[in-house]
Specification:
The complex is a heterodimer.
Chain A: E1 2-10, E2 13-21, E3 25-29, H1 36-44, E4 51-56, E5 59-63, E6 68-69, E7 77-80, H2 92-97, H3 105-118, H4 134-146, E8 152-156, H5 164-180, E9 184-189, H6 192-198, E10 201-206, E11 209-215, H7 216-221, H8 226-231, E12 236-246, E13 249-254, E14 259-264, E15 276-281, E16 287-289, E17 296-306, E18 310-317, E19 326-332, E20 345-349, E21 356-358
Parallel strand pairs in A: 3-9, 3-10, 7-8, 8-9
Antiparallel strand pairs in A: 1-2, 1-4, 4-5, 5-6, 10-11, 12-13, 12-15, 13-14, 15-21, 16-20, 17-18, 17-20, 18-19
Chain B: H1 2-36, H2 42-54, H3 57-68, H4 73-80, H5 89-114, H6 117-125, H7 130-141, H8 143-159, H9 162-167, H10 178-187, H11 191-222
Classes of the chains: A alpha+beta, B mainly alpha.
Chain lengths: 360, 231
């Protein structure tokens, strides 16, 4: 179990993090400059936080009150850097063996062979990093980090430099590795889909703080604020206010639509009449209708983007509303060409159980 | 006759060898220390280390003369042990070290600072102490810079004339190096002898450079698949 509670102040940045990882993979998601890497460097002992404490399996790695600061060498934490940071002058086998310095030679050889097998490159042990593909380099970096049997593993955007095919394979292999490596894993990514795939829990960063840290389902389904919503792919966000609360049903008035929308009441929120709220919905949850009904608004397609697996529509308000808004919806790509095209009018349906209510 | 050619060559070689070895370790130690030092005297110490590079040789020589002279505290202390630096072979080595040190220092430091901090940090997270990080990561990765620095230090030590003349003087068979010998041969009008000495220097430098290039090429060949395969 890794318990982090740290603060660090830089001239124009303030980091204040409270995070616990318990034998699981936690994905860290957030915009660049939000303190993700700084958190990992603090945990590894490569930078020193101003105050707080870091504990790993009952060992104190850092405690400002007691003046404890273990150097990185004594922390038993594996680190995988974004640029791999392999030793270019050592072979693959030597890279992996580096952290096992001082152990019996036989044990080292055995473990290197075992790890090479695990990362699927047994034949490359005498090669140098410069001779490997980026995917193979990343595998070696992973193997090298777990070779000394660390208690926690920190990965800083490890797959960002890989192409889609290699990235997906490595994501799969990292999950497989977690079965083998039974420690705490923190994984930084800027890719929502990747963070969801790999992490059992997700931590959303903003300006040096964690705005939300929950199970991945909860992070996706109930973001806590505008930033969390945006980062987790809620692309449609509108300001509005509570028009009525009755019998567990909620109506929120959105000025841009000129009408209220019915929303299934989120019981965790304490809402009152006329309270300003932010209403959000994911592109994939908007349904396209040919006719008017409850919770629909008339729209006109402004742009259509044809993707490999999905189809993105962008809309603006139809004439009769007169106010401007921009919406994005997305559906699985149909086999035949879509009958909805740029310039055409339609009705957009917002399912009441898919609408997200935010107060900040 | 032969003696007057061989003696300067021998003294020069001895001086260069000793000074290059000393400068090598001194420069690396200073570079390593300064690469990690971030105190408020950083730029002051840095300038001090580079001073011999920009000072006129006569100024440097005169300064050293005052520093090691019989009237200086250091000179008097050395005198107690019966050691006189001025006009002795150690004075040759001291001046050679001082003039070649800035070149070694600045190139080695540049090399150390060029090493990706993530690679050094990776070694640290894998349990390697600072010494092990330095010897197994920082040094091998800055080896090309260190080699270039050594060549520069070597060349500078060979060419050293002004400060050497002031501190070590011109005592044939004792402190007269090739550059000093050439100067005095020309002064005395012995042009042929100066020419022979010049040829000796040329051959010596050429052979050294060829050996160095061979060694460098061999190191590169051995390490072709190593450090710089990716670059």
């Amino acid at each position: 179990m890794l318990e982090i509670k740290i603060k660090k102040t830089l001239p124009d940045f303030h980091l204040a993090i409270d995070l616990t990882v318990d034998q699981e993979i936690v994905s860290i998601l957030g915009p660049s400059g939000s303190g993700k890497t700084m958190t990992l460097l603090s945990i590894a002992g490569l930078i020193r936080p101003d105050e707080g404490s870091i504990r790993l399996n009952e060992r104190t790695l850092f405690n400002s009150a007691e003046g404890v600061f273990l150097p990185p060498q004594e922390r038993k934490i594996g680190f995988v850097f974004q640029n791999y940071a392999l030793f270019p002058h050592l072979t693959v086998a030597e890279n992996i063996a580096y952290g096992m310095h001082g152990r019996p030679k036989k044990d080292i050889q055995k473990r290197v062979a075992e790890l090479l097998e695990l990362i699927n490159i047994p034949g490359l042990k005498m090669r140098y990093p410069g001779e490997l593909s980026s995917g193979q380099q990343q595998r070696v970096a992973l193997a090298r980090a777990i070779a000394p049997e660390p208690e926690a593993l920190l990965l800083d955007e490890p797959f960002s430099a890989l192409d889609t095919f290699r990235r997906e394979r490595l994501e799969y292999e990292l999950l497989a590795l977690h079965q083998y490596f039974k420690g705490d894993i923190l994984f930084i990514t800027h890719d929502l889909a990747q963070g969801f795939k790999i992490g059992t829990r997700m931590a959303i960063y903003e300006n040096g703080r964690i705005v939300q840290c929950d199970s991945r389902e909860k992070v996706i389904n109930s973001p806590v604020n505008r930033t969390a919503a945006k980062l987790t792919g809620v692309k449609n966000l509108f300001d509005g206010y509570i028009a009525s609360i009755e019998n567990g049903a909620l109506q929120a008035y959105i000025p841009e639509f000129g009408k209220p929308l019915k929303i299934n009441y989120p019981e965790t929120l304490n809402l009152s009449l006329n309270q300003p709220v932010i209403i959000g919905i994911r592109p994939e949850h908007i349904e396209i209708m040919g006719y008017k009904q409850e919770n629909t608004i008339p729209s006109r397609v402004s742009r259509l983007v044809d993707g490999v697996t999905d189809l993105h529509y962008y809309y603006f308000a139809d004439k009769d509303i007169g106010k401007r808004y921009n919406l994005e919806s997305c559906t699985s790509r149909p086999l035949s060409p879509p009958n909805l095209d740029t310039g055409k009018s339609c009705f957009l349906y917002f399912p009441p159980d898919r609408l997200i209510v935010l107060t900040e | 006759m032969l003696e007057s050619f061989l003696s300067p060559l021998y003294i020069s070689m001895k001086t260069i060898l000793a000074s290059t070895v000393i400068t090598f370790f001194l420069g690396i130690a200073a570079a390593r220390w300064m690469a990690n030092y971030s105190g408020r005297f950083k730029s002051l110490i840095d300038s001090l280390f580079l001073l011999p590079l920009v000072l006129p040789p006569t100024v440097l020589g005169f300064g050293l003369l005052l520093f090691f002279g019989k009237n200086s505290p250091l000179g008097q202390l050395l005198d107690l042990f019966g050691v006189t630096v001025i006009f002795s072979w150690p004075a040759n080595v001291i001046t050679a070290v001082i003039v070649s040190f800035p070149l070694m220092y600045i190139s080695a430091r540049g090399g150390f600072e060029q090493v990706d901090i993530n690679i050094e940090n990776a070694a640290r997270t894998m349990g390697a102490g600072e010494w092990r990080v330095f010897w197994t990561v920082t040094m091998p990765l800055s080896w090309p810079s260190i080699m270039a620095a050594t060549v520069l230090a070597f060349a500078r030590a060979l060419g050293e004339f002004g400060a050497t003349l002031m501190l070590a003087g011109n005592i044939p068979g004792k402190t007269t190096t090739i550059p000093v010998a050439i100067y005095f041969k020309i002064q005395a009008g012995h042009m042929e002898e100066a020419l022979i000495l010049t040829l000796i220097v040329l051959i010596f430098v050429f052979v050294s450079l060829v050996l160095l290039a061979y060694w460098k090429g061999k190191a590169k060949k051995d390490g072709r698949n190593k450090a710089f395969a990716g670059n």
